[in-house]
Structures
1.
Amino acid sequence: MTSKPFSEYAERNGPAILEVLRDEFSSATRVLEIGSGTGQHAVQFAGALKHLQWQTSDLDENCEGISAWVQSSGLSNLMPPLALDVRTARLPGATYDAVFSANTSHIMSLDSVERMFALIGRTLKLDGVFCLYGPFRQADAFNSPSNGRFHESLRARDSAMGIRDIEVLDEFGTKNGLTRRRLYAMPANNHVAVWVKLSPISD
C-alpha cells in the first residue's frame, strides 16, 4: 500500500475547523472537498460527521496519497478521490449540498480561484453551503504581520500565488449565486468563510 502523506498543519487545524463544520454542515448529506491534500482532513471530518457522505478530490498527482488515507480509515461514508482540476472540471449540476476547501485559494492563481467559485456555483444545490478555510485579507489589509510575510513568501515562490482579499472572493461568489453569510476567526490568523447558494446558476 502507498505510504500515507502527512501534514502537521492539517493535524493541528483539523479540530478547530471541525467545530465550524458541525454547525455549517449539520443539515448536509453530500459534501465535496476540493483540494483534499494529504487526505487527513477528510478522514477527521468524515469520521466525526457520520451523517455526511464525504467526497474527496484533488489534482491527479495527489490522489494516490489521499486514497491511502481513505482505505486505511475504513469509513463507509468517505469516498475515494476524484481527479479534479478546477480549471477544467465539469461536474453534474446541483449534485452536492455542501463544499469544503482548505488552504487552496492562496496557492491557486486568481483565475483558478474564480473558476473554483464557478464550479461550486454549478455543483451546489440551492441553499447549499461552501466553507473555505485559510488566510484572507480584509479591506486591503493583512490581519497579522505573519500573514503579510507569508503572502510575500508565496509571491516570491510563484507570482500567481498570494493571500486573497475576501472582498474579491465575495465578488466571485456573487457572480455564481453565492452570498457570504459568516466569517469565523480561527487559530493561527486564519478564517473559515461561509457562502450560501441563494440563486440558481444556468450551466
2.
Amino acid sequence: MRSLRLVAIRLWQMRRVLVLVIPYFLLFGWLFSGDPAGDLRPAELYGIRETPQWQAPDRDHWCGKAANGADLFELSRFAMATSVSVAVVAVSTGIGLALLVTMLFVFDPGENRFAWIERTTRTGVILPGMIVMVILTGGGGGGLLLLILGLALLVALMLCPLLCRWFREGEEGFEILAARVLGLSRREIVLGRVLPSVLRRLPGVFAALVPVAMLAEMSLSFLGFTGERLSVGVMVERGQAYLIEAPWMAIYPGIFATGVVMAFSLLGWRVSAALRTGPLPPVF
C-alpha cells in the first residue's frame, strides 16, 4: 500500500506533464496509423505521365490525388511519419551522445573540468547548423544515415555546454553541501543527487528539439540532399512542377506539414516549460 501511495503521489505531482505527454504520443500514433506506402519513390508520384491520374481535392480525398492516383493525404501522413522518425532517432542519439561526453568529465573535482567541452562547442557555433548540414549531406552524397548522424552531432554539440551548466548548478545546492558534510563521496553525490535532476529535464529537451529536427529534415529533403525517399520536402519540391495543372500536389503537403510541426512545437514547448528545462541553445 505504501508503494502504491507513493506512486499515486508521484503521478499527481507530474499531472501537468502527463496531460501534455498524452496528446504528444497520440499525435505520434495518428501519424503512424496510416497505410504504409512501402518503397514508393517520388518519381512514381510526380513522374510525367501521358495520362496522369491526379484529382482535385473533394469530399472523399481531402488533399486530392497524386499523379499515380494515390491519396495525397495518406501519402503526406506517411512522409510526415518518416520525418518524425528521423527527428526522433537523431535527437535521441544527440541527447545520449551529449550526456555521454559530459559524464566523461563530471567526476573530475577540478573547477575547470568542463573547459574543454565549452571551448569546443564555442568554436562549433561559428557556422549556423543548417549550413553545416547542407555541407555535410551534400558533400557526402546525401542519404538517411548521413542525415541522422549529422543531426545527432549538431544536437550533441549544442547540448554539451547546457548539460555542463546543469551539472555545475546541481552541485551548488544546499543539499549537496549537506551531503558533503555527511561524508558522501563525489561519485555518490553525482549519481544519486545531481544526475537524477539532470535526467528529469531531458524529456523537455527532447520534446522541444524534435520539431526543430523535423524542419531541418524537410528543408534538406526539399534541397535534394536526403536521397530518393518519400518526404514532405520532396513532395513540395516535386509538386512545384505541377502548380498550373495540379497545384494541390505542392500546396497541401506543405499545409499538412505546417500543421503537424506547429502541433509538435506547441506541445514540446509546454512539456519543456512544465519540466522547467529553461531556454535551450539555438541548434539551427
3.
Amino acid sequence: MKKRNLVLILVMMIILISSCSQATTDNATKGPITVATMIDSEGAILGNMLLLLMEDSGFEVENKIGFGTPDILRKALESNEVDLVVDYTGSGQYYGAVAAAAVWSDPQLGYEAVQTFDKETNNIEWLTPAPANNTEMLAVTKSFSEENDIRTMEDFAEYVTNGGEVKLICSASFSDNPMGLLGYQNAYGFQLTSDQMIVLSHGNTAEMLKALYDGSDGVNVSLVYGTDGSLQEMDMLVLKDSKNVPPVYLPAPVLRGEVAELYPELRDLFTDTFESLDLETLQSLNARVAFGGEDAKIVAEEYLKEKGLLD
C-alpha cells in the first residue's frame, strides 16, 4: 500500500514538474531582437511599427532606430550587429544582386531579385514590402506646374528644350547616375548644363526641398524621394515618370536568416501592416513627423490602432 502511494506521488510530481516546465517555456520571453533603421522620419515611423508589433507579440526588443546611414545599416546587418532593419528593394543592386536595369524598375521583379540574392548569398530574408515607391524623382511647386503646364517628365523635357529657365538642386550621386538624371535625360530627350544645376555632396532631400520652397538661388526643380513627408505640406508636385527610369525602392522589413529560423512567426508578423502602406499614406505619416514635429512612435502607434493592427 505504501509502495503504491509512493509511486503515485512520484507520478504526480513528474506531471507537476512537466507542467511547470511547459508553462515556463510558454511564458518565456522571445528575443531579444535588435531593430535598426536609417536616420530619417520614415525609418523612425516604420521602425516603431516593427517594435510595437513585436512587443505586442511577446518579443523583447532592443531599439536602435536612427542607427545610421544606409551603408552603415547594411554592414551592421551583415555582421549580425543588428537583427531586423527597414531597407529598400532597389538597393539590392548595390549589395551585389545582378539584374538588368529593367528588373530594378519593376516592383515585383526587383523585390524577387534582391530577395533571392540575399537569401542564397547572405542568409538574409526580405519580408513583404510596402507598395510605396520611395524612388528618386523630380518635383516642382504646384504654382510652377500650373504656370508652365508641367506635370510629367515629358512636359519638363519640352520645357527645357524650349529654353525654359531651370535650376535643379540634387545630389552628386543622382546627377552622375545612368539610372538617375543621366537616365532621365536619355529617356526623355533633354539636357541640363552645369549652370542649370546645384549639385550637393549628400542626399538630404529636406535641404533640397527647403531650397525649392524658398526659391533659393533660383531653384525651381528638386530631387525628392517619392514618400517624402514634406511634399504635401509644402504644396509640391512630383513629376510623373511614365518610363520608370530610376529603380523602384519599396520599403520592407529585412531579417537575419538565423532569427527567422528561430522565430518563423516573424516572417508574417508585419505583412498586413506593410501591405497597407501606399505612397499617399507614407507621405502623410512622414509629414506628421518631418513637418509637423510629432513623435514617430505615437504616429506609428495611432496608425496601427486605427487600422486594427494593434490592440
